[in-house]
Amino acid sequence: MKKLLVTVCSLFIATSAFSQQLPDSSGSLGQNMKIGQKVTVRLTDGKVREGSVTELNQTELVIASKSGTERIMAPRIQEVSRRHRDSLWNGLIIGAAAGALMGWAAIAANDCDYDECGEAGVVPGGIVIGAALGTGLDLLLRERQVLYRAPQSQTSLRIQILMGQVTGTRVSWRF
Question: I need a surface site. Which of 2, 79, 124, 141 has the fewest CB within 10 A?
Answer without folding.
Answer: 2
